[in-house]
Design brief:
Layout (H helix, E strand, L loop, with lengths): L2 H19 L3 H16 L4 H5 L4 H19 L2 H12 L7 H14 L4 H19 L3 H14 L7 H12 L6 H22 L24 H18 L5 H15 L1 H9 L3 H19 L2 H10 L4 H16 L4 H11 L1 H5 L5 H13 L8 H9 L5 H28 L5
Helix pairs in contact: 1-2, 1-15, 2-14, 4-9, 4-12, 4-13, 4-14, 5-6, 6-7, 6-8, 7-8, 7-20, 8-10, 8-20, 9-17, 10-19, 11-12, 12-13, 14-17, 16-17, 16-19, 16-21, 17-19, 19-21
Length: 414
Amino acid sequence: MSAELISIIVLVVIFVVATTRSINMGVLAFAGAFGVGTLVADMDADGIFSGFPGDLFVVLVGVTYLFAIARATGTTDWLVHASIRLVGGRLALIPWVMFAVTAVLTAIGAVSPAAVAIVAPIALGFAARYGISPLLMGALVVHGAQAGGFSPISVYGSTVNSIVNREHLAGSETVLFLASLAVNLVIAAILFVVLGGLKLGRTRVTAEDETEEVPKLNPARIAVLVSLAALVVGALVFDLDVGLTAISLAVLLSVCWPDTGRKAVGEITWPTVLLICGVLTYVGVLQEMGTIDYAGNAVTGVGVPLLAALLLCYIGAIVSAFASSVGIMGALIPLAVPFLAQGTVGPIGMIAALAVAATVVDVSPFSTNGALVLANAKNVDRDTFFRQLMVYGGIMVVVVPAAVWLALIVPGWG
């Protein structure tokens, strides 16, 4: 058995074990990088660690640190209430408020599961209280998280864009962001119509119906809002490094509110940081030993470039429904490099399609986001709701890869 095939088998084992044993995929990937790199590829520690994404590590820590402060100060709660007041409490617009708030949270740096964990309890509480379909409300929260999830300063967006840069591919941060936004917005609109959103009518609720205490602006929350705005402007207008900018802003806030800063450090999403850095380190080992070229040539061997691209999209969607979306992207994009290098498929459209296909299925109850929706649903039969989420997730797996393939890859974007 060739070394390249062994390394691919180990990668599959990593995904299977992480899914079935609930072990962080990053830990497994680090162990796999050590085992394969040392025993199969005859690499030393320096060679193995050459694939560690130090720049991405800073981005992940920085944005999640800043967002943890936003959570600790109650700024995110204030944003939810402010959004409800903005639409005048119209019941039919509440699902869209939850969609928009979750999208904003992920767009400014929240990890998708963290944003869903914040909004889902509020959203599904509303659903139970006012007779809104829990599937509609839960799905819009998850799709909202994915709609904003590929902004240039988001965790997913930063991850994909960093991989694209490291692989010297032609990418477009704008196309990536807008593709995910458009696909999830279209899906949300279809769900809203199919699941009875139009029947909600003109009923109004007040923000006070959500919780007993409505958060107010205070100096800490104002400072956080200013910091988030500064991060967006600094990254998009002045081209400042997202990770270093986010950490610097978080440090300034921590100096002013040290108790909050200490709590926020413990709330950095270290499991996600570990997962992404571990997977990319293992991918670095694969690149060093030639597995990436080997796999890319195998995909190319299908003979029809567009069919090969469709196959990659379905692989991303199917595996991601049961495993980490960001981990799948970290592995699939490098594997597609030799395939994209042939120039028969546009890299910009291909990367956007892979990213969307690998994340839009996160409403599956086997994914973290879907599980959060299931756990927070109220006044429902759990088994029935589980089956609804599973069926809906299956529909996403079947339909979306083909749809993004037609919209983004067939036209030849890039």
